Amino acid sequence: MIVIKIGGARAVDPAGALTDIAALVKSDAEGGDHEAEDVVVVHGGSTAVDDTLGRLGIDPEYVETPSGVTGRFTDEETMEVFEMVMPGLVNTELVAALRSEGVDAVGLSGVDGGLLRGPRKSAVRVVEDGKRKVRRGDHSGTPREVNGDLLAGLVGDGYTPVVSPPMAGADGGSEPRATVTPVNTDADRAAAAVAGALDATLLLLTDVPGILEDAGDRDTLVREVDDPAEWDRLESLAEGGMGRKVMAAGEALEGGAAEVVVADANIDRPVMTALEGDGTHIYPGALEGDT
Prior knowledge:
Elements: E1 2-6, H1 15-25, E2 39-43, H2 46-55, E3 62-64, E4 70-72, H3 76-100, E5 105-110, E6 116-119, E7 123-128, E8 131-136, E9 145-146, H4 148-156, E10 160-171, E11 179-183, H5 187-197, E12 201-206, E13 224-225, H6 228-237, H7 241-255, E14 259-264, H8 270-275, E15 280-282
Parallel strand pairs: 1-2, 1-12, 2-10, 5-10, 6-10, 12-14, 13-15
Antiparallel strand pairs: 3-4, 6-9, 7-8, 10-11, 14-15
Helix pairs in contact: 2-3, 5-7
């Protein structure tokens, strides 16, 4: 099983990944040159959300956490746009593109069937002007549970799930009568939760070759991480959006993922090339002894 996360930034072109996904899911009898692979796609959509906010005259807001990770701050207005754009526009376009490639794709949000579930946050800790602050807001959360049976059932029936935030945020935990509210969640971490639940390989596609020792030099790619010392170094290298990917990689491996690969979406055959060894490959050994 392979979970492929397609980034939603403007710099990421999904076309090559979609062609590769089509090749992966097809067997020899269907025109492929290999045994068919089971694939789940997870996607972001930050640019589409920001563009729509801009057309509505709303300024998107990004904040930095105390750990140095940058993310979207989601208020009520932004959440309404997020719900409209992510499972609507972005997910539908990706499903249509995959079906055009001959893939029997089906789109799902994290709310559908309780696919991605977790408590919604009442506040987030941020750093503003060098000071730590608490911003009140209950429109975001982190997936703690994945309905893996739903995904496995779809895959078993020959479908390729295409998963989009939002997730199902619960007030009152996972009790049967808990109130469920759609909330924003980071797509990298959503993909990590899915990969962990399915014991899958996680491929995070982005707009750089992988994790770089020098962010300005594409030739300084970190190719393999397989022990705790390398992991500590990797965490020190990751900044901004890459910090989220390193966090997601750790969560995926802790959850049971077989391997995490961070690779370039914009090269020829991006998925196939990454699976053949390109990009940064992170293995469970990187977290051995980690507390």
